Amino acid sequence: MWLNMHEISVCQSILAILEKRLEHNSEKKVKIIHLAIGELSGIELDALRFAFPIVMQHTRFETATLKITVIPALGFCENCNKSVKISSAFRCCSDCKKPISKLIQGDELLIKEVEL
Ligand SMILES: [Zn+2]
Predict the structure, then answer these.
(1) How far is the CA of 101 from the centre of ligand 1 (A)?
(2) Ligand 1 mean position to 44 CA, how many Å?
(3) Distance between Cα 100 and ligand 1 center (Å)
(4) CA dist., res. 33 & res. 93, Å (int)
(5) Is 103 in a helix, a strand, or coil?
(6) Dihedral over Cα of 18, 24, 29, 30: its sign
(7) What are 3-34's pLDDT values in tens digits?
(8) pTM higher than 0.90 for the full model?
(9) Cα of 2 from ligand 1 centre, angstroms
(10) CATH number for the domain running over 5-115
């Protein structure tokens, strides 16, 4: 697989956030990094898993295990007045087929938990 620049920069942002978050815990080893990634975030999970150890090389996160939870994409259909599941290809309501303009969740990248 080719290194993907987008996922490398995502990993670099994660690294920066982790370093800041753990700056008062600097002597402990990081065991697990748990991420939650939205279906519509545009992040390729395979590319992210590939880029992660490369970006984390020579940092304290080098040996950490990466766990990823996918957050399903949910939109709000104003026509049906309810939240509906959507996919990247069809941002339309599965019931009334009208386009969804409001995304409730599914485009986020969260660092959910870091286990030391
Ligand atoms: Zn609808």
Answers:
(1) 11
(2) 29
(3) 8
(4) 34
(5) strand
(6) negative
(7) 788 999 999 999 999 999 998 887 788 999 99
(8) no
(9) 40
(10) 3.30.2320.80
